[in-house]
């Protein structure tokens, strides 16, 4: 059995069952940090706009220094869960820690995490504040980067369900990027290192999610944190946790991110020379925006007071209610959607379709169900 298969089959023993689903805040991770403080160094390294603590975790004693941060966007929590699973793995399998020292900021934006928003409490996207540094959270990350002096940076995020890996009917379950560090998008030595690490993760992932790994466009934006750190000649990787079929709680992709993190760290730990084997990076397909959560195909439907045969696209809006993320189905588009894919598709076969309680076919209308020839179909996601 390969080391990747062993990592996959052994995941359950490392998964931290006390955190799950999409809503992860300081209150969820603080008991974990208390427990971890017996095995590694846990400190409060600053405060958010609203005064919530930002925590840092340092573990390992190797010469290769890896900085990673999660929930820079407060509603992107999958990688936070995976980081705690990774820490469980590392404390039981310390060979990586003999070669690497890790510094992890599990929730950089605790206000955004609590409100379940992308932005911080000042409505600022921290991933566009790398140069202006107007926010306390941005200053915490900058200070940590300067004091820890990393050899590698992992910028951990979550992406929407709209992305495909290339132009095919393949969800971008996980995406990566070796960000550019100049306007020419030069393939610099540190970018080659980042690209090689991504190819090592992609090789592993192809055994579990074939053709479902994508990369982002590398257009340079110095206001982004990844581009800024790359421009300082530190190999930097963007990780994006995407959509696995029916996995709206992001628990399946959590495992894949865990495996990706361990694979990247193992590659760093066991290789003293990185950057020569990077060219396979360019064969990873670039992300496209070709998916909706649901497409109802060939629906006979009332539009502007006349019956038409249309495709109807539905996208979920994520809404926090009573400390739980709910998924509200909303009409996002209609017409000929043959160039798009649905994570779920319903073929109405040109039969009459009633869009739940919506009075007409209009964008952003919320619909929990549809009726096709008196048969009801729920649009609520499974395992949500």
TrEMBL record:
It comes from the Bacteria. One of its GO terms (molecular function) is metallocarboxypeptidase activity. Its cofactor is Zn(2+). One of its GO terms (cellular component) is extracellular space. PROSITE patterns: PEPTIDASE_M14 (PS52035). Keywords: Hydrolase, Metalloprotease, Protease, Zinc. One of its GO terms (biological process) is proteolysis. Residues 22-268 form the Peptidase M14 domain. The keyword Membrane does not apply. The active site is at 240 (proton donor/acceptor). SUPFAM superfamilies: Zn-dependent exopeptidases. InterPro entries: Peptidase_M14. Belongs to the peptidase M14 family. This is DUF2817 domain-containing protein.
């Amino acid at each position: 059995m390969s080391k990747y298969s062993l990592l996959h089959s052994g995941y359950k023993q490392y998964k931290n069952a006390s955190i799950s689903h999409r809503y992860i805040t300081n209150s969820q991770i603080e008991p974990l940090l208390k427990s971890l403080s017996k095995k590694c160094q846990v400190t409060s390294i600053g405060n958010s706009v609203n005064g919530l603590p930002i925590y840092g975790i340092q573990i390992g004693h190797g010469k290769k220094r890896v900085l990673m941060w999660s929930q820079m966007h407060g509603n992107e929590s999958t990688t936070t869960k995976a980081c705690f699973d990774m820490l469980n793995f590392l404390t039981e399998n310390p060979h990586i820690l003999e070669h690497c020292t890790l510094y992890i900021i599990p929730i950089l934006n605790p206000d955004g995490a609590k409100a379940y928003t992308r932005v911080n409490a000042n409505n600022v996207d921290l991933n566009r504040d790398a140069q202006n540094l107007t926010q306390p959270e941005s200053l915490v990350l900058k200070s940590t980067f300067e004091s820890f002096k990393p050899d590698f940076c992992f910028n951990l995020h979550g992406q929407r369900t709209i992305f495909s890996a290339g132009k095919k009917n393949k969800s971008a379950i996980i995406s990566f990027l070796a960000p550019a560090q100049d306007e020419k998008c030069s393939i610099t030595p540190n970018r080659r290192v980042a690209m090689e690490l991504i190819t090592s993760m992609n090789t592993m992932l192809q055994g579990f999610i074939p053709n479902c790994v994508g990369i982002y466009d590398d257009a340079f934006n110095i206001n982004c944190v990844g581009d800024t750190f790359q421009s300082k000649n530190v190999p930097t990787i963007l990780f994006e946790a995407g959509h696995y079929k029916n996995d709206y709680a992001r628990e399946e992709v959590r495992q894949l991110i865990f495996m990706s993190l361990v694979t990247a760290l193992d590659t760093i730990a066991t290789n003293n020379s990185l950057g020569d084997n990077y060219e396979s990076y360019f064969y990873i397909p670039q992300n496209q925006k070709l998916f909706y959560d649901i497409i109802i195909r060939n629906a006979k439907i009332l539009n502007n007071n006349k019956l038409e045969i249309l495709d109807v696209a539905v996208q979920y809006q994520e809404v926090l209610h009573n400390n739980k993320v709910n998924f509200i189905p909303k009409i996002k588009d209609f017409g000929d959607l043959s160039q798009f894919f649905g994570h779920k598709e319903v073929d109405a076969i040109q039969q009459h379709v009633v869009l739940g309680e919506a009075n007409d076919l209009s964008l952003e209308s919320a619909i929990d169900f549809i009726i096709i020839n008196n048969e009801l179909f729920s649009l609520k996601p499974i395992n949500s």
